[in-house]
Amino acid sequence: MRRSLTLCLLVPAALLAACASGPAPRVTRMGDGVYKSPSAQDAEAYCRNFGAPMRFLDPKTARAPQGEVTYRCD
Prior knowledge:
- The protein is of the alpha+beta class.
- It has two helices and four strands.
- Helix content is about 40%, strand content about 20%.
- A four-stranded antiparallel β-sheet has the order 1-2-4-3.
- The longest helix is centred in the first third of the chain and has 19 residues, at about 1-20.
- The chain starts with a helix and ends with a strand.
């Protein structure tokens, strides 16, 4: 009985903690370490999760692009 009570209390607490941490960045894996996100902010947030520096793969833009971006987390 004690184990089921503990489980009933821990599972909702874990779900609540996951929801309270905020939404996950929107990322599509393109393969070979390349990712695509709808904005530069989503890309930066995704790479920040791992503490990895980010590199945009579109050489035409000198600064952070405004629309959909492809990048690597090095």
